[in-house]
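Entry:
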Amino acid sequence: MGTYKNKTYPLRLDNDLRQKVEIIANKDDRALSKQYERMIRYYIEMYEKEHGKIEIDQEE
C-alpha cells in the first residue's frame, strides 16, 4: 500500500449540501475531495483575517 502525506477523515453531510458541492467541483473540473479542501482553506483564510492567525503544532 502507498503512503499518503494527508490524513483521511470520514465526513457526513446533508445530501443536498453534498450535491451542491459536487456540482461546483464538476463545474471547476476538480475532484470532490479537492473541492472540499479548497472550501475549507478559504473558510480558514476568512476566519484568520477576522480573528488572527491560528498557530498549529507542526509535529503532526
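The mean pLDDT is 91.
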